[in-house]
Write a structure and sequence with these properties.
Layout (H helix, E strand, L loop, with lengths): L1 H7 L2 H22 L5 H4 L4 H15 L9 E4 L8 H7 L9 E4 L5 H13 L6 H31 L1 H12 L2 H6 L12 H16 L4 H16 L5 H8 L1 H13 L4 H33 L2 H13 L9 H9 L6 E3 L2 E3 L1 H20 L8 H21 L1 H6 L12 H27 L5
Antiparallel strand pairs: 1-2, 3-4
Length: 437
């Protein structure tokens, strides 16, 4: 009956109610998991986050510096979290002490700086506004995650969507990092969401309007304006839904050529967004240094210092993170490191294939699900190949990549397996009930 009432609603009303439910769920999860409060769930990479608080302080105090980069106030006896403490205490700062950080555009500093000015109209207390900023960051992360989980649920069954959501809720790295104002983890999902929208437009309309690819361009560009780190991972996730549709079409011997070209157009749009963000960064450096040559040298130094060199080989870097015992997911007393997730995902796909052979049909395409899982494994590995120096130095940052690809893909596979078995059992029970004449 509920489904009938829902189907009778106009499409805009359904979309509005769905969006409201997802937003309400994101708010509820933020406060239920205490992610509005960094003091209860722990912190992650506070040194980088201090750059954002420095920029917020600069905007809060009506100060400016060339190009609007992130930065720190170089007060004597510096502490890694000093700018955060200065923000919480509403401490006065001098503009000549501000040292810009030119190695990324720093859009997040500008955005949170102006949002902080809005929040200051509600509460002047530094700690209260800090919590508001953390809550905002977490709500956006949960909202993006729930959108992707809902899509997985619609395609591969409700328990597959629950599996995707569980991969976020049970991720220690994500629960600590989602509040971090420097990394803005919710922007990591934007390319995947944009690619999912292109996939949905193609399915519903049979074509993708130009604005669909424009959203891919904007999503990747916005992500890069908040930092180019881990970009290969996000570019691969941007293509994930389209790649799965292409593989499915190939296996079913359906027209696969349109999906291939949608992948190509999405790739061009994504690379275009990357290039546009790079252009903005270059313009900022020119404004700061006053010389195009010096600006280009600064960009090259930032881009190459974490990708070239290092004494470890690419296989050694990959082995370091694949064989790590640190849990990617923590399910109560059960800790799942990367190799355990790989084994579970492969076993889940094998069992689904076996079940299909015995007449248990999955909710969605098994080849598409397998393609998504393979990309979930390859996406984090891509950064370890392209930026081995960065991975060798920042061992506290790289493990979170598993949580944005492999972990949700694996739990989606396991959830889809549960749904396949549940449908099979329900069908058998229904078949066993005698008909009433």
């Amino acid at each position: 009956m509920i489904q009938n009432h829902w189907a009778r609603l106009p499409a805009p009303a359904r979309a509005l109610l769905t969006a409201a439910a997802l937003l309400l769920g994101a708010v509820a999860l933020t406060f239920a998991m205490h992610n509005q409060d960094t003091y209860r769930t722990g912190t992650w990479d506070e040194t980088s986050q201090s750059l954002v608080f420095g920029r917020i302080l600069q905007i809060q105090n009506h100060q400016s510096a060339p190009a609007g980069f992130l930065g720190n106030y170089l007060v004597e006896g510096r502490d890694p979290q000093q700018d955060r403490y200065l923000f919480r205490e509403n401490a006065p700062v001098r503009p000549e002490e501000y040292q810009p950080y030119t190695h990324q555009s720093g859009l997040q500093g500008l955005a949170f700086g102006w949002l902080n000015k809005v929040y200051s109209l509600i509460n002047q207390g530094g700690e209260a506004r800090e919590r508001m900023l953390y809550a905002t960051n977490s709500i956006l992360l949960y909202l993006a995650s729930l959108c992707l989980a809902a899509a997985a649920g619609r395609v591969f069954g409700p328990t597959a969507g629950l599996g995707f959501a569980a991969a976020v809720l049970c991720a220690p790295w994500v629960q600590r990092g989602m509040k971090n104002l420097y990394w803005c983890l919710w922007t990591w999902w934007l390319p995947a969401l944009a690619g999912l929208l292109v996939w949905q437009l193609a399915r519903r309309r049979g074509r993708v309007p130009g604005w669909g690819y424009g959203l891919v361009f904007g999503a990747v560009g916005l992500r890069c304006l908040c930092g180019f780190e881990f970009i290969s991972d996000f570019l691969i996730l941007c293509e994930a839904a389209l790649f799965a549709a292409w593989v499915d079409a190939l296996v079913r011997r359906a027209p696969a050529r349109p999906w291939f070209f949608r992948m190509v157009y999405t790739g061009f749009a994504a690379v275009g967004g990357f290039a546009a963000a790079l252009g903005v960064w270059f313009a900022q450096n020119v404004a700061y240094f006053g010389d195009a040559g010096e600006a280009w040298r600064s960009i090259l130094e930032a881009a190459t210092r974490h990708s070239l060199g290092g004494d470890a080989s690419i296989p050694a870097v990959i082995s370091l993170y694949l064989t790590s015992a640190d849990p990617v997911l923590q399910l109560g007393p059960v800790a799942l490191p990367p190799l355990a997730l790989i084994a579970l995902g492969a076993a889940g796909l094998a069992l689904m294939a076996l079940g299909q052979k015995f007449g248990l049909r999955p909710a969605g395409s098994l080849p598409a699900l397998a393609a998504l899982w393979c990309l979930g494994l390859l996406a984090p590995l891509s950064w370890m190949v392209l930026a081995k120096m960065h991975c060798q130095i920042h061992t506290h940052l790289v493990p979170i990549l598993w949580n944005f690809a492999l972990a949700p893909a694996t739990l989606t596979v396991l959830g889809a397996l549960v749904w396949q078995l549940a449908r099979g059992l329900r069908r058998r029970k229904t078949a066993g009930i005698p008909r009433v004449t």
